[in-house]
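Sequence only, no structure available. Ideas?
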Amino acid sequence: MGGTYMTEQEFISFMGPLAQADMAKSGVLASVTTAQSILESGHGSTELARNANNFFGMKCSLSGNTWPGSTWDGVSKYRKQTGEEDANGNAYTITADFRKYASAADSVADHSAYLLGAMNGSKQRYAGLKGETDPAKAIGIIKAGGYATDTKYVSKVLSIINKYELTEYDQATKGGVSNLKINQNPNFGTHNTSPRSGEIEYIVIHYVGATGTAKNNIDYYNQRSTTNASADFYVGFEGEKWQYNPDPKARYCWAVGAENSPAMAAACTVWPETPTACPLKMCVRNKGNKNANSEDWYFEQATIDSAVELTKYLMKLYGVPASRVIRHFDVNGKLCPGVYGWNSASGSESAWNDFKKRIGSAAAATPATPVQPAATEKKYYRVRKTWADAASQKGAFTSLANAKACADQNKGYKVFDWNGKQVYPAAAFQPYQVRVEITDLRIRKGAGTNYDYWTEKNGQSKYTGKGTFTIVKEKNGAGATKWGLLKAYEKNADGWISLDYAKRV
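Reply:
I predicted one. C-alpha cells follow.
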C-alpha cells in the first residue's frame, strides 16, 4: 500500500480482482475474501494494511504456524495492539506480532492458504470451504473453525457482500471464456493510471516497442519513477497474458495519447480527458534493425493468437463491438503497432485485416471522419506549481478529476482553473449545509463505521432525522465516500454522518 489511502470504491476495485484471481487457484469465494479484507482492514486504511500489506489481521502464530502454500517469508513481522472478544462478547486488548507481506497479493494468497491448510488436531480446521459457492455457508464454515471471536462476524461479512454486491467477483469467472488464464499484477499501486468516469468503448491494440517480455513490462510500469505510460493488458511471446490494471472499468491507463491528431482522437473519442479506451499491448521480436520503421520487427504467432483470444474476451466483457477494436495508429497516426502488415505506414495492412477478421469484423475498420473541434473555446484545468509559472505545467484537462490525479502524482503541483484560480488543493474549508431525507441516518463519534454511534437514553441509535444540517468539516473514513462533522458536535468533533446519504444545498 505504501502508506497511500484509497477511497472505498478504489479499494474494492483494487482488492476484488486480486481475490478473483486467487479464487481461480484456491477455490475460496472472491466475495468472501474481499468482504473480509474490507471489514478487517477498514478498506485498506488500518495501520496493519498500510504498513505491512496485511489485510486480514494474520498473526505470526496461527494454528501451528505452518500450512501448505504460505507466502509469508517466516521472518517479517509488525507488532501492534489489537482488540479481541471472549465467548461472551466482552472486549479486551492484547499486543501481538502480525505477518508483514511483500505485496497485497501475497496477503490474499496466504490468507486463502491458511483457510485451506490450517489444522485442528488431525482435522482440517475449515473443512468444506474449498469450492463452496454459497457465501453464507462459506463464512459460517470460517466462523465455526474459530477464525474470528466476534460473535456477529458472519452477519457483518454478509452485510458487506450485499452492500457492495461483491458476488460479481464470484460470477465474473463463470461462463464465456472461463478457462482464459490472465496473470495478475501483484504490485499495482494506481500510479500510471487515473480514475475512469465513463464506460470502456474502445479496445486499442499496441505493440510494446521494445523486446521485453510481458512480465518485464508489468515490472517496468510498477516503478513509480515511470512517467505517463502504461496499458491494461500485455500479451507475451508464448501467448501468456498479463493484466497490469486490476480493474480497467474503475481506472484507465495512459496509453492512447492524441497529441499528433486531436481531431482524429475526438472522432475516436479516445481522448485523455474523456478516456474510453482499454489498451492491449503485444510483445514484439526484432531480427536486428531496431529503427522504428524497420521490417525486422515481428510478432510471434503465439502472441497474435493469444491477442485475438484476449481481445474477443474483452469485447464480450465490456460490450465492445469489433468495429471499435482499433490501433494506436488510428488515433494519432503513430507507428503502433510498428510491425509490417499492421498499418498503412508500414506498407501493408494485411496482418491487421486478418486480425480484424478473426475477432469478427469483415475488414479493418476505417477511422471515422474527423470531427472538427467546436468553435467555442474549451475551458481547461491546468496543473502547475504556480499560475505564473507556465513553464512548469504538467498538463491541461477538461476534467477536474483528471487534473487532480495529475497533481497528486507530481509533488508540489496544484490545479488552476481557466481564470488562474487555484481549485486544488482546496483553500480553507468553508462550512456548508446538507439536506437529509432519510429518518435513520446514524450519528457516529468519529469519521467511519469503525467508530461507535451515539445512542439515546433508552439505548436506541441516535439519528439526525430528516432536515437541513450544517457541515463544518469533512474526512475520509471506512464505510462511506466522505464523512461530515455536524455543527452541533463541532466543539468535541464527535458527531459525524455519512455524506453519501445527504445532499448538499
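The mean pLDDT is 80.
Hope that gets you unstuck.
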